[in-house]
Amino acid sequence: MNAVLRTVLQRLGLGIVTLFVVSIIIFSTIEMLPGDFARAILGQSATPETVAAFERQIGLDQPAPVRYLEWIGGVLQGDFGNSFASAGALGGGQARTVLSLVVPRLENTLFLAGMTAVIAVPLALTLGLLAALYRNSIFDRMVNLVTLTSISVPEFFVAYILMLFLAVRYPIFYSLANVSADTPLLERILRCALPSMTLVLVIVAHMMRMTRAAIINLLASPYIEMARLKGISPSRIVYYHALPNAWAPIATVVALNLAYLIVGVVVVEVVFVYPGIGQLMVDAVSSRDIPVVQACALIFAVAYVLLNLLADIVSIVTNPRLLHPR
Amino acid sequence: MSESTRIDPDRPEEVVLAEAVPAPRRRTRWQTAWRELRRAPPTAWLGLAVIACYVILAVFAPVFAPYGQNELVGSQYEPWSEQFVFGTDQLGRDMLSRLIFGARNTIGIAFVTTIFAFLIGGSLGLLASILGGWVDQGLGRLVDVLMAIPQLIFALVLLSIVGPSLINLVLIIAVLDSTRVFRLSRAVSMNVVVMDFVEAARLQGEGLRWIMTREVLPNVLPPLVAEFGLRFCFVFLTISALSFLGLGIQPPTADWGSMVRENATLINYDDITPLLPAGAIALLTVGVNFVVDWFLHKASGLKE
Fold first, then answer.
1. b/e per residue A234-251 (b: at least 16 CB within 10 A)
2. Distance from CA of B92 to the nearest CA of A (A)
């Protein structure tokens, strides 16, 4: 158990370092801003005084390390600063905090991602396992063809096809997923049906192919061959011999694809006009609302790093060689 | 080609086998290629045919397109007709012509970006494996850091800083994608640089450039070629996604991703026109993937 603990702690430490570096990168993007940035945000008619006031407001008059510490300190307390979009309104009105923009949308995105994961993960693992067990059968070949096709097409293609057939031609689901905070749960699920179906199709293809490859790799190892030659029943081989070693690759596959989900969610939210964090980020990028972009990027990146970290930890704590050291 | 055991230096086209069996004529490169192609599965053939069609369409776009890519030829959103095969778009431009020019623009930009990614990633990867030491460590950690943030998200952040323009787009995607190329080329060439002939070249006093291009590169080329197909698909999809989000290739350039976005409202009127550019993207990536799949299957020595 000692070896396991030590490896997990090492990995956790590495994860924290990664998070730190990621936060520095996202912060330092603002350092790369061109000189006339304030003017670009405030418009050509802005007076030099407004420009100077705006630069002071976003803290451009202080050295970078100081600003980083202030920024990361705020972030850790849940304060991402103010959105530029309201600062552009030349002093008029209260500036909106990034947090108030991000939180409701983050909840929506987590709902969509969670719903997708609940459907996609069991489905993909089952299909992948079946394809690996019945390798080179008609079933396997068909699944291989279908998944190769669906991982190589863009998400918006799948999304619009589903929208055309399941919302416009046969109005079963809603074509727009415009939920609000007081939408009842059942209707929310119905409205999310098409976006989450799109994500499921893309994710399942990826996850299934990786599961299949991992299991085939495993079943080809000598100790499985030995178990087979001993005459053990196939189910026992799978449960007692293959599975303990399969947790690590399966966890990696799941985490990698949930991380992939993070990226897919951006496009799908835009297609279905779903008020999630991906759409917020795209809007913020078009209007160059840097604090919002930074907050969204940080959330996506942290989720990505944490998922990878989780996968590593699962594969460490289920590794039989570490659990039963000689 | 490696089946030849000894080659007569005077007559390199003839293989001299160790045993005294009648020597088979060595096939030319084209014959070998043709032989492999005939044995290729139908999916690979399909993929090759699709790629060939796209390339022809892209190269001869002005010949095939009935109208110019930015020519206003009708009123907006005209239905499919004799005059406008796929109707017109939101400004009244001919959809078919824009689709054909889109092949040239979209594929061209993705291709150039992939080449940049390979030039950056490939050369740095070779450099890291040959030089080793702190160069290798430094580049390796840098790549780790760049890969810790999802690529599309990173691209969005950078685009929000520098603003969307074609050059920015190509450079950002090329740099972000070169990390994957770096990893692969470094890993493959690590196995090559420890070989005796590289050592011999070093002792001979050959320069870094020579070792990179003449000793290591030829030996790492096959996996890099297969990777090129995969990376092209990935870059192509990323650029299309960004264009679809309105942050990639900017109007009025005819580009498939933006065309989907511009005509997306038609879907709600049961019109499949917006699916055409999306389908064009999908068909090409599927085609390339089929070919790469076959290539990888062959390269792995038919292990499965």
1. eeebbeebbeebbebbbb
2. 22
Inter-chain touch B157–A155, beta carbons under 8 Å: no
User: What is B43-300's CATH topology?
Assistant: MetI-like fold (1.10.3720)
**Chain B: nearest CA to A33, how far in angstroms?**
6
B272 vs A contacts (CB less than 8 Å): 164
Query: Å from A91 to nearest chain B CA?
Result: 23
Among the partner residues A32, A154, A168, nearest to B241 by beta-carbon distance = A154
Contacts of B148 in chain A (CB under 8 A): 18, 21-22, 301, 304-305
CB contact under 8 A, A266 and B153: yes
More confident residue, A2 or B167: B167
Residues B35/B71, Cβ–Cβ less than 8 Å = no
A97: left (phi over 0), alpha (psi -120 to 50) or beta: beta
Q: A221: left (phi > 0), else alpha (psi -120 to 50), else beta?
A: beta
d(CA B236, CA A153): 10
Chain B residue nearest residue A262, CA to CA: B150
Query: Phi/psi at A82 (nearest 5 deg)?
Result: -105, 150
Burial A118-136 (b: 16+ CB within 10 A, else e): ebbbeebbebbbbbbbebe
From the list A152, A282, A304, the residue facing B245 with the nearest CB is A282
pTM (predicted TM-score)? 0.83
Which parts of chain B register pLDDT below 70? 1-26, 299-304
What CATH fold (topology level) applies to the domain A102-323? Answer: MetI-like fold (1.10.3720)
Burial-class residue B273 by CB neighbours within 10 Å (0-12, 13-18, 19+).
buried
- B148–A267 CB contact, under 8 Å: no
What pLDDT, in 10s, does the model give residues B196-236? Answer: 999 899 999 888 889 888 889 888 887 888 889 889 999 99
pLDDT digits (tens, 9 = 90+) for B156-171: 888 888 877 889 899 9
Contacts of A34 in chain B (CB under 8 A): 162
- Picking from B160, B245, B293, the nearest residue to A288 by CB comes out as B160
Which of A109, A144, A157 to substitute to test the interface with B, most B CBs within 10 Å? A157
Task: Give the C-alpha separation, A196 to A256, whole Å.
Answer: 18
Are the C-beta atoms of A92 and A86 separated by less than 8 Å?
no
Beta-carbon contacts of A124 under 8 Å, excluding residues fewer than 6 positions away, are: A203, A204, A206, A207, A208, A211, A257
Contact residues, chain A, for B257 at CB < 8 Å: 154
Give the tokens for residue B167.
């050059």
H runs (alpha helix) in B164-216: 166-193, 196-203, 208-210
Listed in sequence order, the residues at least 6 apart from A321 whose beta carbon sits closer than 8 Å to its beta carbon are none
Name the residue ranges covered by the structural domains of chain A.
14-98, 102-323
How many residues belong to chain B? 304
